[in-house]
Amino acid sequence: MEELYWGIRDRLPSVGGGRIGASFLPRVHQVDGRVIECWRYPVKSMQGERVDELAIGSKGVESDRGYALLDAASGRILSAKSVKDLLFARVEGKAVVLPDGTSVALDDPAASDVLSAWLERDVRLATPVEGEERSFQMTFDPPKDDAEYVDIPAPAGSFLDFAPVHLLTTATLAGCRAKRPDLDWDVRRFQPNLVIDVDGPPFVENDCVGQRLSIGADATPELRGPQCGAPCPCVPNRDSSGRASCSGPCPTSTSRP
Questions:
Q1: Among 4, 30, 189, 219, which lies 20 to 30 A Cα-Cα from 73?
Q2: Which domain, by its residues, includes 138?
Q3: Considering the domain boundaries, does residue 129 fall inside one?
């Protein structure tokens, strides 16, 4: 199998700093790209933090999905795929900030009670437990409010959906935006960890599935496949009011170490 590297020649860049980011480096040719945004999401399905750099280890991005809300009755992981209100909360520093401005520290013993009152259901703020198996619910027909929800197992010991690192390219976003300019293609709808500025056709990243990437000095994850993020892209974000199409997989790819 031809090895393909997406090699960062410097540390993950400061956004807008103009430093070199990432490159596709196949044996036969090279397609240059650049890391232009880095994101992490401390609490699953809540709004993320844009940062200058990320630490990526064997379990994914440090401080990414380190917390989640669990349904107290079923033990399921709550996700915006079934509880859309989660997308309207955000994390600032070590606290969750609710849409009305209420702030509660992640380590506050009363955090679960505050979040339960906000969602009007009994929930528990939790951290992953090594080897523990949990699931979340989603539908494969998100535009329908009465669509059937199914249980999807999360990787053991984590609150991830599919893979530890989530990538999105500007080529794919540009292609989708050209196809449907009436829709809102805000990057935040897709909750990527890395946004890569690269020329090429839409979904160019999917041509590299099954091959390895080089990120920084030590990380060499395998590009695993498209990420199905529905229905999160259909939910208006804090500063967006449109709807993005969710037919088929969202324009993103995921990777595993």
A1: 189
A2: 23-256
A3: yes
Alpha-carbon distance of 223 to 46, in angstroms, equals: 25
**What residue has token string 């890395």?**
194
Alpha helices in 101-242 (DSSP H): 111-119, 170-179
Q: What is the pLDDT of residues 171-210, one digit of tens each?
A: 999 999 999 998 888 888 888 998 988 888 888 887 777 7
**Number of folded domains in the chain?**
1
Nearest of 199, 189, 200 to residue 252 by alpha carbon: 189
Exposure string for 14-30, b = 16+ CB within 10 A, e = fewer: eeeeeeebbbbbeeeee
Question: Is 191 a member of any domain?
Answer: yes
pTM over 0.85: no
Residue 8 domain-assigned (yes or no): no
For the chain, what is the mean pLDDT? 76
Those residues of the chain that have pLDDT short of 50 are 1-30, 230-231, 239-250, 252, 256-257
Q: Could you tell me if residue 27 is left (phi over 0), alpha (psi between -120 and 50 degrees) or otherwise beta? A: alpha
The pair phi, psi for residue 79, each rounded to 5°, is -130, 155
